[in-house]
Amino acid sequence: MSITTAHLRTALWLAELGLPVLPLRAGKQPFGNCRACTRSACGDRPHMLAAGPCACPAPCHGWGAATTDRDVLTSPAWTRAWDRAVAVAYHPGGAGLTVLDLDDADVVAWARQTLPATKTVTTTRGEHWIYRGAMRSVNGVRKGVDIKSTMAYAQWRGPGTGTMTALPDAVRALAVKQPTPVRPAPCTVVAPAAAGGPCPHRSPAYLERGITMAEQRIKDASDGIHRAVFRLFLAVLSAHGRCGCLTQAHIDRLFTVAQEKGESLRHCEDAWTNARTQLGM
């Protein structure tokens, strides 16, 4: 297949270097999910909210679509996307990298005084500082500063200058925010109806231990909070969702701790719905 666009040529070069890439459409945003994949109808991909894999041939799922596979990048669906693309993006975490997105001259000056030097790339308003090592992505760690690594994408703006250095503790520390009181939004999902028959649990304490354990594991999750929440919801529903013991109060507890961890109400509701769907409930 002939390579007809500059963006695709750049993408193939980056893929050879080990950077998972994806096209960006007008507005420099990923291409939206196709009709078959919208609202996680496809089950998404293994590393995203729900279990997969998704067999969609199009560049769906934002950063989750990023790939180094030449056959995928040059497939008909992707070629059509490259023809419409305005830029190339990559998934830093997928390549074991972290991008510190510095949005203006003031925060660039702050970084030069505060952080270890590394490879830098000039952007429209500031700079990207690229470190070797992956971490969780967090926006707004301070005014004008975003961290883009796992479960995020960064626009490719050229190879940059300088020598890439190891991800320092000072950057990791930026992602550790002081806890603030959270007032979780009320959930709109409901507890599953009882399937009938005797409850298999030995005592109410069994359910309480299960909910408490799920709460603690969500609190302890360090990376991939979407995946952690889905897996814990799936485990709770699998063990307690068919006998009628699981109440709205239990669901509220799980949603509360997930939202305190930074998960949105929408993601909680989607994870709960996907877990029920996977279990046939």
What is this structure's SSE topology?
Elements: H1 6-16, E1 21-25, E2 29-30, H2 70-73, H3 76-84, E3 87-90, E4 97-102, H4 105-114, E5 119-122, E6 127-132, E7 138-142, E8 145-148, E9 154-155, H5 169-174, H6 204-220, H7 225-240, H8 248-260, H9 265-278
Antiparallel strand pairs: 1-2, 1-3, 3-9, 4-6, 4-8, 5-6, 7-8
Would you mind describing this structure in some detail?
The structure is a single chain. The chain is of the alpha+beta class. The chain folds into 3 domains: 84 residues, no CATH class; 82 residues, no CATH class; 75 residues, no CATH class. Helices cover 36% and strands 14% of the residues. It contains 9 helices and 9 strands. The chain has a 5-stranded antiparallel sheet with strand order 5-6-4-8-7. Strands 2-1-3-9 form a 4-stranded antiparallel sheet. A hairpin with a 3-residue loop joins β1 and β2. α6 packs antiparallel against α7, α6 packs parallel to α8 and α7 crosses α9. The radius of gyration is 21 Å and the shape is globular. The chain starts with 5 loop residues before the first helix and ends with a helix. 35% of the residues are buried.
